[in-house]
């Protein structure tokens, strides 16, 4: 049996390191021994498959499912899921979670002194369509303090979890909002050394997808790793 | 054409809000072919403290060594073996799941890989996921496994589960983030 075609290794500086002391929790959790370079086998180029059984029709709407409307600014967040080769990643699972408009998570360990919203839980899911498009309806989350350093505040963000076709395409990331004055102070955002790569984390304001009288909109395209050149091409060496 | 990939960011401490809905700690339906096992262990950080806010995702082949594929007619149907698990660690840093032992799967240059589970780890303090593997104790394929052979000899044991002295169908495997018995993680 011939070898499988693996995924490209990340370009220099486009992904954060494990150890980034500016983000204090990395210090006791980042590996200290050398990583072992793993050739991609079937175990890495295949990955879990999700389908309509995993996502209920209303799961993309985080403003629904409660007796009333959540507080905050309603927003549409949509975009495309692509790979590095600009191919759409279709029928892929996207999970999203976030704080409420006051910057508080509906989670037992969040003790930030800001109000919970009985009409907002903050978790949703969707599947991309055949062209890799996805769409969430939610509210804009608030910034919140996080004690990493003196007067540390996280910029408003949405957490995204994505599955591609291969396990090594798996990505968990955060989406930030354009023009957020907290971004230059945020160790998470700044942990990505390459400026252009870092900017991939900031959504664009999306006038065309705003819903008049209802919601503003942001566009967030997400790019997963792509497959390498075929083995044929590497034979030229 | 080559687009710049989206950088990874940490799951943070509130991952349960996003991940609980699709958590799976019983990977194989009771009727699935293969040796049914429980795998349990603990996650500890560089101070030896339990990690109570982690998620482990398991990816594995079935007992015949086949991965469920996207183009497979049996895709994602309730009650069928799918090969995916997602387990959240508890307040003591412990985790536990049930599954079947997978068959050997093809590896690089025609070599077969010994049965293994691929483990993806997310937690606060990890800006990107860790990737590691669980191999099975006493499997004859371990000695020639092409991936285990890439790991320094003195660290290989961190990737092989141990049989519980109390229960034959229970395997133990701990994930140690830092220190003397630091688990081997892969650059993938």
- Which percent band covers the strand fraction of chain A? 15-25%
Helix content of chain A: under 10%
Radius of gyration of chain B, in angstroms, nearest whole number:
17 Å
Tally of DSSP helical segments of chain B:
1
User: Count of DSSP helices of chain A?
Assistant: 4
Measured by DSSP, the beta-strand proportion of chain B falls in 25-35%
Shape type of chain A: globular
The sequence of SSEs of chain B as H and E is: HEEEEEEEEEEEE
Main beta sheet of chain A, described? 5 strands, mixed
List the helices and strands of chain A in order: EHEEEEEEEEHHEEEH
Query: How large, in whole angstroms, is the Cα Rg of chain A?
Result: 19 Å
Helix proportion of chain B: under 10%
| Subunit organisation of the chains | heterodimer
Tags for this model:
heterodimer; A: 237 residues; mainly beta; five-stranded mixed β-sheet; 12 strands; globular; B: 188 residues; 1 helix; 2% helix; 29% strand
